[in-house]
Amino acid sequence: METRHARIIRLLSDQRVRLGLYLLLLLPLLLRRDITPENELKYLQIADEALRDGHFWCLFLDGAAYADKPPLYLWIVMGLRRLLGFHCIPLLELFSLLPAFGILVVFDRWCGVSMQLRWRVAAEAALLTTAYFLGGAVVLRMDMLMVFFITVAMRLFWKIDQGDTRPALRWAFAFSVFMAIFSKGPVGFLFPLAGIFVWLGREKRLRDFGRAWGWRTWLVLVVLCGIWWGCAWLEGGGAYLDNLLIHQTVDRAVNAFHHNRPWYYYLYTIWYAMGPWALLTIPVSTWGAVKKIGMEPLVRFFLTISATFFLMLSVFSSKLQIYLLPLFGFVNYAAFLILQAADTPQRRWPGILRKVVYGVAAAMLLLCVAAGFFFPDIF
């Protein structure tokens, strides 16, 4: 007869059950927290202004052009406002939380063959409770939506790179890259472009670059971006399009007018942006790379694209801790793949660390429950 402990383990082995549990634990915080005036209130105001004035492709804040972000996330805010007649904050929060859950699902399936269940659960718990990942999952921001599409795009590329020749994968890759761009901007394009280029160069297979970045991808990007930019030009004129394509991209990257930080900014901010797990995942990833432990192709891929993106962000002059969000999942799962490979009868500390992760992650999620009831403004 199955024991209670065995039933609990069997239930938690189903990721759908775990995601439901995470939702229940975060629900008090989602229902009780106040919106932040700096970003969330601004997005609501932009959506109200767009609905009031009949703007769809061009966004404005207090009458001034707001080309900082693509319109996708603001369309979601506008659509729910039109549907319900008011801004329902818990419902809007789902458009940050559900992409975060989607990232967990993609990585769980991606690593399903390479990782045992207990290690996948530990990696999942660590990623969810990473400081800026958890924060990005409960606040109204478009970052998590972009990271979801980037993660999907990189997963599709991996399938293509492993020999899957289905044309549907190439079309899906192209569409995912566009959706990443349309969620947050050029980072959604640069992450998969630079990461894949460096990975194939490292593997001495640059001739395979066109397998993902072939004519289908460029056709999709040209057509869909052309429609977007053309509609923005028709609605807002050349000045708005220049603001969108030049001022908010090139000017931010080269000589930022906003969030200008030194090149070494991420060398110290990553430790608390990925906290508390940066103290585990970064040293473990470095140790595995140096000692050549667990360096299977998937781990090398995760570490290569993470390092590429980190260096690329460090070169750009506009910097914020949340901009590191796309690399969290890749560093996290690479570290846990290395820990699994290092877990042997002669080396028991990886297994001990895994149990520590379970305990700390559970405590952090319980603190979120307490924060939802007693300190709802913590986020």
SSE run: HHHEEHHHHHHHHHHHHHHH
- Rounded radius of gyration (Å): 21 Å
Beta content comes to under 5%
Low-confidence stretches: none
Number of domains: 1
Largest sheet, strands/sense/barrel: 2 strands, antiparallel
Keywords:
single chain; 379 residues; mainly alpha; two-stranded antiparallel ribbon
3D architecture notes:
With 379 residues, the protein is an all-alpha fold. Helix content is 73%, strand content 1%. The chain has helices at residues 4-12, 15-32, 40-53, 72-84, 89-110, 117-128, 131-138, 143-161, 167-184, 187-202, 209-212, 215-247, 250-254, 265-273, 278-291, 297-315, 325-342, 349-374, and strands at residues 60-61, 64-65. It has one domain (25-378). The protein is globular and about 65 Å long.
At a glance:
The protein has 379 residues and is mainly alpha-helical. It has helices at 4-12, 15-32, 40-53, 72-84, 89-110, 117-128, 131-138, 143-161, 167-184, 187-202, 209-212, 215-247, 250-254, 265-273, 278-291, 297-315, 325-342, 349-374; strands at residues 60-61, 64-65. It has one domain (25-378).
Write the layout of secondary structure elements.
Blueprint: H1 4-12, H2 15-32, H3 40-53, E1 60-61, E2 64-65, H4 72-84, H5 89-110, H6 117-128, H7 131-138, H8 143-161, H9 167-184, H10 187-202, H11 209-212, H12 215-247, H13 250-254, H14 265-273, H15 278-291, H16 297-315, H17 325-342, H18 349-374
